[in-house]
From TrEMBL:
Membrane topology, as annotated: Multi-pass membrane protein
SUPFAM superfamilies the UniProt entry points to: MetI-like (SSF161098)
CDD domains attached to this UniProt entry: TM_PBP2
Protein name: Carbohydrate ABC transporter permease
One Pfam match: BPD_transp_1
Organism annotation: Paenibacillus thailandensis
InterPro entries: MetI-like (IPR000515), MetI-like_sf (IPR035906)
Keywords: Cell membrane, Membrane, Transmembrane, Transmembrane helix, Transport
Limits of the ABC transmembrane type-1 domain: 76-282
């Protein structure tokens, strides 16, 4: 009888857990499905409201309006190149600096750590930053997206915490075998740091992909180096302007046929889907990369 009661209690417990997880899944997925439904729904019908998780009047006109905008493909290409190149350079730079700061025989490690940490709380401000970028001749160049964002102090500290949790005997053993610091970094540290490197790679990639303000500040007059987010911002501004001045004969006809709400949702899907496609491949590293370096033995 006791075994039967335990089985029944187990079934009740599992049923309760499934109900809770189903509720969490619905709460999590509903906003995304709602955005997708609105982006695929007829714009004039969307104004009426009442769209839930499926489009009431299916159409691809919202996406057609976005992709018909000039310079969008150029911006998409530049955003992909920027994200890939910026992520690779950022991961290598952060891991190199983190390895140096983790070395017990580096005499200035505490001083350098404090100096790096100060940059997280104090900055020169927008105008000095612009003057610096201008003096470096990075205005209206593609490298303005890469060089200023090479190193993130937060990523350095995350990687350093992970390296500090690794047995230092591995580095000592490699050094006894004749390996120099670069060989230790490349063949010992990097292979063991795959989880945390994947984690910061996701941080860096999302930051580059979602960035638009640097294009607005430094490449506004150079359409060759425009990026996707900046172009989508201009699409949204055009849609809102056309909705406000729809009686104006000079307003863009393509924008006047769609509502800003539909454009917003379509833009949200365009910028979100690429990250959603990449995240599953890094998910298994994400949790371990954030937790393994958090506690030292």
């Amino acid at each position: 009888m006791q075994g039967i009661r335990m089985n029944r209690s187990d079934r009740v417990f599992h049923t309760f857990v499934y109900m809770i997880m189903t509720f969490v899944a619905v709460v999590t997925l509903y906003p995304f499905l709602n955005v997708l439904a609105i982006s695929l729904n007829d714009s004039m019908d969307t104004v009426k409201g009442g769209i839930t998780i499926y489009p009431r009047e299916f159409t691809l006109n919202n996406y057609a309006t976005i992709f018909s905008y000039p310079n969008l493909l150029t911006g998409f290409r530049n955003s992909v190149i920027r994200t890939v190149l910026g992520t690779v350079v950022g991961v290598i730079a952060a891991s190199m600096v983190a390895y140096v700061l983790s070395r017990a025989d580096f005499q200035a490690r505490k001083f350098m750590s404090v100096m790096f940490a100060m940059t997280m709380y104090f900055s020169g401000g927008l105008i000095p930053t612009y003057m610096l970028i201008k003096n470096l001749d990075l205005i209206n160049t593609f490298w303005v997206y890469i060089i200023p964002a090479i190193l993130s102090v937060w990523n350095v500290f995350v990687v350093r915490s992970f390296i500090d949790a690794l047995p230092f005997a591995l580095q000592e053993s490699a050094k006894l075998d004749g390996a120099n610091d670069f060989v230790i970094y490349w063949k010992v540290i990097l292979p063991l740091c795959q989880p945390v490197l994947a984690t910061i790679a996701l941080f860096i990639a999302v930051g580059h992909w979602n960035s638009w303000f640097d294009a607005y500040m430094y490449n506004r007059s150079n359409e060759v180096n425009t990026i996707l987010q900046y172009e989508l911002m201009k699409v949204l501004q055009s849609a809102e302007s056309a909705a406000t001045n729809y009686r104006d004969p000079n307003a863009q006809q393509s924008m006047a046929s769609v509502s800003p709400e539909s454009i917003k949702m379509a833009i949200t899907m365009v910028v979100t889907v690429p990250i959603l496609l990449v995240y599953p491949f890094l998910q298994k590293y994400f949790v371990s990369g954030m937790t393994l370096g958090a506690v030292k033995s």
